């Protein structure tokens, strides 16, 4: 893809209301002001203090009652403190920790104003995790809540050493991807810095702080006795032709796993959000189409849905998208219950959308999903995977949208008469 190639405008029949939800998300964040400082404090406490728990091993919940996380809202999640989180095990712990991350939707249509309102960055391959530094230690936890590393770092409050500056009770929270081959934490977002919450700051501001503050601390320096792992801020670009070209084809010190697109005005919204998108093709990711347990691409697309009351099968979205329904006899004979995660194959009938809304799917039952899994698939992931098999959204489509937007932004030429 040439960086300044001009193409015809990209058009695709609508298969979702993703653009409408983007607009609603931007509107909602201006109307809703939560206690961001308390939310950051709770998350930092949970990551640091729950070192004895092993939520990925123990499938049981302690007998003491805990809130229903499936029905929790963002504000409820922010009030869910470390004492409650410490009682969670198995799927409930995985769900709680996963919901603290901002999770991208899969790009199934090209956003409006892509060139002006969005950043693009090359996502590093590796384990997504929170990194929290506080009170002389640093802890990283992956999406299921289990500890990845417990180590000293050059982050504020991240190591017990003489001459450390800053208040003793300060903490920092980074959203990272750990890249195994070079043992580096690549920082894709900053949630809190020295106790200052960035939940309700725009991505534009968070990314500026991420680049400047990390460099100030020495966290990007090579490993040492008080700094076990190197940190590196992932480079981001304005999503114009040059930026898209750099993220897609540019040389980087890590293995790429797709492209991430951030709306510049987006706050750090926990859970799935249409204001952050992920897109992949074979040139920038080894994992475009999902594989089975043997690492092979199955002949049919596999999806995981959640069983709800009255046999409804839904996605993990909020609100969930209903896909189909199982009859009561089959549910009973198969030993299924509400909340079960079930794997299906999409048959030859495929998926059908009408006027941007999902209508029906040809589903074939396979089995109950692995117990280690916490969530059903999202609607955007199912549709992206389906498109990748049949009619993929290509990088040329993104480039043509940017070119079209640039042409529209140019002032009209005015002819001067003699």
Automatic annotation (TrEMBL):
Annotated Low complexity bias: 45-54
* GO CC entries: cytoplasm; nucleus
In which compartments does the protein localize? Answer: Cytoplasm; Nucleus
- What does the UniProt keyword field contain? Cytoplasm, Nucleus, RNA-binding, Transport
Q: Which processes are annotated in GO (biological process)?
A: snRNA import into nucleus
Q: Where is the Snurportin-1 m3G cap-binding domain?
A: 100-277
Keyword Glycoprotein annotated: no
Region of interest: Disordered: 1-60
- Stretches of Basic and acidic residues bias are at 1-25
Keyword check for Cell division: no
Q: Which GO terms describe its molecular function?
A: RNA binding
Q: Which Pfam families match?
A: SPN1_m3Gcap_bd (PF21974)
**Domain of life of the organism in this record?**
Eukaryota
Protein purpose:
Functions as an U snRNP-specific nuclear import adapter. Involved in the trimethylguanosine (m3G)-cap-dependent nuclear import of U snRNPs. Binds specifically to the terminal m3G-cap U snRNAs.
Homology family: Belongs to the snurportin family.
- The protein here is known as Snurportin-1
């Amino acid at each position: 893809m040439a960086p300044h190639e001009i193409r015809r405008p990209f058009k695709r029949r609508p298969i979702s209301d993703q653009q409408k939800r983007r607009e609603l998300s931007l509107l909602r964040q201006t109307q809703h002001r939560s206690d961001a400082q308390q939310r950051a404090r709770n998350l930092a406490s949970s990551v640091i203090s729950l070192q004895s728990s092993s939520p990925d091993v123990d499938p049981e919940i302690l007998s003491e009652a805990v809130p229903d996380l499936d029905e929790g809202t963002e504000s409820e999640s922010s009030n869910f403190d470390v004492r409650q989180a410490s009682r969670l095990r198995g799927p409930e712990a995985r769900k709680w920790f996963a919901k603290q991350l901002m999770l991208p939707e899969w790009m199934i249509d090209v956003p409006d104003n892509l060139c002006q309102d969005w950043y693009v960055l090359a996502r590093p391959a590796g384990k997504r995790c929170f990194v929290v530094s506080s009170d002389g230690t640093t802890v990283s936890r992956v999406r299921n809540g289990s500890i990845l590393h417990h180590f000293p770092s050059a982050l504020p409050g991240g190591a017990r050493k003489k001459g450390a500056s800053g208040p003793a009770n300060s903490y920092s929270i980074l959203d990272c991807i750990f890249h195994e081959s070079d043992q580096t934490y690549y920082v894709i977002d900053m949630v809190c810095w020295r106790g200052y919450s960035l939940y309700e700051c725009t991505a534009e501001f968070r990314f500026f702080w991420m680049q400047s503050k990390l460099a100030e601390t020495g966290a990007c320096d090579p490993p040492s006795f008080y700094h076990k792992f190197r940190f590196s801020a992932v480079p981001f670009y304005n999503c114009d032709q040059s930026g898209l070209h750099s993220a897609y084809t540019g040389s980087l010190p890590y293995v790429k796993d797709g492209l991430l697109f951030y709306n510049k005005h987006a706050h750090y919204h926990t859970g799935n959000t249409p204001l952050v998108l992920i897109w992949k093709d074979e040139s920038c990711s080894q994992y475009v189409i999902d594989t089975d347990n043997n690492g092979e691409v199955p002949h049919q697309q596999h999806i995981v849905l959640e069983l709800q009351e009255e046999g409804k099968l839904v996605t993990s979205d909020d609100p969930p998208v209903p896909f189909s329904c199982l009859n009561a006899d089959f549910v009973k004979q198969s030993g299924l219950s509400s909340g079960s995660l079930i794997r299906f194959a999409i048959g030859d009938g495929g998926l059908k959308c009408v006027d941007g809304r999902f209508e029906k799917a040809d589903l074939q039952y396979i089995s109950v999903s692995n117990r280690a899994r916490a969530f059903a698939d999202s609607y955007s992931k199912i549709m992206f995977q389906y498109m990748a098999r049949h009619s993929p959204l290509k990088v040329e489509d993104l480039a043509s949208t940017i070119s079209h937007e640039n042409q529209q932004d140019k002032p009209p030429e005015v002819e001067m008469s003699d």
